[in-house]
Amino acid sequence: MATFVSPAAVLAVILAIAFALMLTDRLRPDLVALGVALSLGLTGLITPSEVFSGFSSSAVVTIIGIFILAQGLQRTGVTRAFGRFLAQVNRGGERGMIALVMSSAAFLSLFMNNIAAAAVLLPGAVEAVKRRRLMPSKVMMPLAFATALGGMATLLTTANIVVSEALIVAGQRGYGLLDFAPVGAPVALAGALFMLTIGRRLLPARDPAALAPERADGHTLTQSYELFERLNRVHIPPTSSLVNCRISESGIGKEYGMSVMAILRNGQTLLAPSPDQVIRAHDTLLIIGRRERAEQLAQRGAIVEPDGRSDIEITSDDVSLVEVMLAPRSRAVGQTLRQLRFREKFGANVLALWHGGRSVRTDLASIPLEFGDAMLVHGSREAISLLQSDSDFLVLRPPSGEDTPVRADRAIAAVVILGIVLLVAALDVVPIAPAMMLGALAMVLSGCLSMDEAYRAIEWRAVFLIAGMLPVGIAMERTGAADALGRSIVASLSSLGPTAVGAGLLILTMGLTQVMSGQVTAIVIAPIAISAAQAIGSDPRAVAMFVALGCSLTFITPSAHPVNTFVMGAGGYTAGDYPRVGAPLTLLCTALIIALVGLIWRP
């Protein structure tokens, strides 16, 4: 590295490039983080042994343990039972449902990853909303916001763990399990009350189809996806070139971008026909797709009937219609249905896709799937069961009587293990990282889940993101960047007192969190906060608390947290819905955090 370039300037360039790549989605964040760690080592800002020090940090070990513990609860059916309870217990109206969903989400996020908590509750919440004939747009955003609010009250939130690790690296004492509760719990309660009163009125009222009476044939789903607006009846005369063709060979899907929903043959209805089903003379195909595409089948000798409407039942004892979303951390993101070989793998047909805020029913196989997309899937119960067992997809409302096998006999063991882990960590009998890993080991040894399932439960993208970015804190300390930025903030706000310095850091953190990961924000801002606190002779743990809590203020944009994006499809939200509700909620929480940290922690 040339001597005329300061180490701080090199660090600034590396971080600027990293942030630009993350914000523009040019590269995956975990890949960018790994590149950052390697760049810091190659430029000499940190030593070779420090490049991968993040992988051995207590923050990463704690997060891995949390993933495995949460999977143990899911594999034994504990979280599913919680979701069913949610769907059954509410007998009130909209306000009661919001209160129940938010309290449940906040409770789960105390000891689970926020995304995992949302994934546990979303199917039950969707079912409960439909049963009570409520607007999903009035419930799903409160669910997402509650996971962030609940995470403020515990150490077991990723950003809180990262800030605690930054304190330890700086020679300070890290946070305990319950250190966040005196501030986080009142803020979470105030946020919930806001959503039950003012926030509820600001939420959009959408998806009137959800108000329709529920029917076993999935009538509500067909309305929501406007399925029958793209239904075509295509008759196959003996002279058609489609006669004796398999559906997979007919070109209806690959060439014309349409889906065969059913075949009417000799007075019988073949629902969700397989790709190997042979088209016969005198069949009538019920095809989902644009009218002009269907009319192109006339070139193959088919006859497109003028009225495509049909009154047939599209479900039966053997065939189901379900709504499916991409699960958190799904490997299907960015891939098309054709690339996933969805039809061949599951034997089910995607009739419509909720993508970009609208229903798409043509050319589905060529659309890259995005986080928040939902699919209308038609298939046999065996196919739907297979889909349920795949960790990349989340069946929002499984057919009655259909369930993925769980180890229900180990449910009590899973709950006991979690309880012991939380108690040991809260009493500081064992440090948090070993406590979490001991709990993870106990989950495997007790048979709650296998070791392979434990490996699959870990969100390795998050692990690499955090482990790759943690050395940034070391580099900021070594180059003096953290100290310089800390002194800059002190120079601007120190005349107003240490609480004002913390408030400035809180606002900076909150703003950055809206456009990039809270985990990354915590890694970058925490060392600055610690240096600022030391410069004014304040308690670094108190000032760093502002940063940790600021990373949970993820209410203004859908990209601020994956959970916000996760509920967009189920709630029918647009990007503009989030600031309308989230901005006043953020102002409320910001004011409370400043007041409570100043009163309780006395920075």
Description:
The protein has 603 residues and is α+β, with helices and mostly antiparallel strands. 53% of the residues lie in helices and 8% in strands. The chain is built from 27 helices and 10 strands.
CATH topology grouping of the domain at 219-304: Alpha-Beta Plaits
Report the sheet-strand fraction: 5-15%
What's the pLDDT, averaged over the residues?
85
Radius of gyration: 27 Å
CATH superfamily of the domain at 219-304: Regulator of K+ conductance, C-terminal domain
State the end-to-end CA separation: 39 Å
Total of helices:
27
Main sheet characteristics: 5 strands, antiparallel
Low-confidence stretches: 208-218
Proportion of helical residues: 40-55%
Strand order of the largest sheet: 3-2-4-1-5
Number of strands: 10
CATH architecture of the domain at 219-304: 2-Layer Sandwich
